[in-house]
Amino acid sequence: MRYKIMVLLFVFIVFLGSCEDQPIPKPKAQMRLEYPQGASSPLETENFSFDYNELATPNLESETAFSLEYPDMKGAIFLSYKKIDGNLEKLIVDAKRLSYEHAVKADNIVEQPYVNPDKQVYGSLFEVQGNAASQSQFFVTDSTEHFLTGSVYFYVKPNYDSILPAAAYLQNDIRRIIETLEWK
Fold first, then answer.
1. Residue 32 in this model has a pLDDT that exceeds 70
2. What CATH number corresponds to the domain at position 175?
3. Nearest to 165 by CA among 11, 59, 28, 30
4. Which residues share a beta bridge with 78?
5. Largest alpha-carbon pair distance within the chain?
6. Strand arrangement of the beta sheet that strand 57-60 belongs to
7. What is the structure's pLDDT at 51?
8. Which of 67, 68, 102, 107 sits CB 3.0–4.6 Å from 130 for a disulfide?
9. 57 is a domain residue
10. Range(s) of the domain holding residue 74
11. 162 with 135: CB under 8 angstroms?
12. Which Pfam families does this entry report, sorted A to Z (predicted)?
């Protein structure tokens, strides 16, 4: 009998001790990044013009190479212009090769063709998904005289989950550039 009382007492003490709330770690939170929709401003060069986001700061290094800097996102869209001189095929191959060089680190590369015969703008936008150095690249041409390439780079180590909101925002700005591009 004494043995049964000791067992019951032991079970009762175990139940009392096990009724505490166990601490549960909180999940890691991530900042929600939202960027304002900037107004459009025209950017004109000797060879072409397009509308860009006013939240960007144009850095015109020359008529053939310049960038749109986004200091709040620690990123930029780098643009490069070349005249076509019987080398259109080589320029397109080089632009595609540059985009697919990111395949080593990328999870996927999605090519989106762009055709606007009214403005004579033809090209492709490459969305690079994963921890690659550049999340978006593009090229556009009129197929006779002008060739423009561009790419997005961030000034931080690529972590796709962290930079995804900024990368998507800049990709929309690239679409605005392509859609408003006019050759001179």
1. no
2. 3.30.160
3. 30
4. 67, 151
5. 104
6. 57-60, 65-70, 75-83, 146-154, 136-141, 121-130, 106-116
7. 97
8. 107
9. no
10. 67-183
11. no
12. GldD_lipo (PF25593)
Residues 31-50 have a mean pLDDT of 86
Task: Look at the block and give the residue holding tokens 């690079």.
Answer: 128
Residue 102 CB coordination number (10 Å)? 21
Establish if 78 belongs to a structural domain: yes
Structurally, the chain folds into a number of domains equal to 1
The answer to whether residue 138 is domain-embedded is yes
Q: One-letter amino acid identity for 121?
A: V
Lowest mean pLDDT among 70-79, 81-90, 96-105, 151-160: 96-105
Residues 6+ apart with CB under 8 A from 4: none
Q: Which amino acid is at 153?
A: Y
SS (H, E, C) the chain: CHHHHHHHHHHHHHHHHCCCCCCCCCCCCCCCCCCCCCCEEEEECCCEEEEEECCCEEEECCCCEEEEEECCCCEEEEEEEEECCCCHHHHHHHHHHHHHHHHHCEEEEEEEEEEECCCCEEEEEEEEEECCCCCEEEEEECCCCEEEEEEEEECCCCCHHHHHHHHHHHHHHHHHHHHHCEEC
In a domain, 27, yes or no: no
121-144 tens-digit pLDDT: 999 999 988 888 888 999 999 999
